[in-house]
Amino acid sequence: MSGTDSGLDGAGARAGESAGRGGALRAVAVIPARLASTRLARKMLLAETGAPLVVHTARNVLAAGVFARVVVAVDADELEQAVRAHGLEALRTRDDHPSGTDRVREAWEALRAAGERASVIVGVQGDEPDLAHDDLAQLVAAFEDPAVELATLCAPLEDPGEFEAPSVVKVVRDARGDALYFSRAPIPALSHGDPGAARALRHVGVYAYRPEALAAFTALPRGALERRESLEQLRWLEAGRRLRVVDARRAPRGIDTLEDYREFVRRVAREAAGDGTGRTGGSRGGLAEARAG
Hints:
This protein is of the alpha/beta class. The chain has ten helices and nine strands. The strands form two sheets. A seven-stranded mixed beta sheet has the order 3-2-1-4-8-5-9, with helices on both faces. Strands 6-7 form a two-stranded antiparallel sheet.
């Protein structure tokens, strides 16, 4: 594993000057990115917009103004070089991690060993370039409650087809806003009772941890429900831990397929034509499941 950068370049340096809207909570974002991908080959390096996809994601996270530091945790020299070429911080990690969370943990341990300190670590998947800045700020702000160890996001789920789709992860919460369960099945069920009593919520696969919780999460064995649903967050619930679920303004549009990417390229082109910057995301809303990293 290569060492961390001794300093931040370009946009990374500007983000490092202040934690921005994160206030007294020092938050560090780690973006796990792997070269191999099953549904869209080498998607992190797709660059029809003029910059690789993972660079768009890192720039958007930086622009949120929430993080004292943003680091892309990569598994290949090619990715590391691409990230650094755009003035962003890259950290080389192992290429055999089973999930993005494990890659985030390795990156954070390297940063901590080099002297970094943080109250909150946020893992943002490298193929999520459209996360709303306010949603990231709300996620970090959840840790102002000392009871919160781990947090994630959710958004309203209105589309009946997506409610039934196993590819869309649903979540139900208790009165505190902590997760009761995540599932690929349609929950809460509509077959009985009052359908207006509890709205359906879509999980947005961005996770934030206190450093101790990140270490505890990755040390837990895979649970039976995690294996059944193929959802690693269930490991935490099965262990009897609490996971705060914060309302997001909207569900971002991740990049899983070639058509997803082509639509992203079109959005970038439209925005560039509109304001001349080519930015994705946005300070307030931006452009309208955690996977192995």
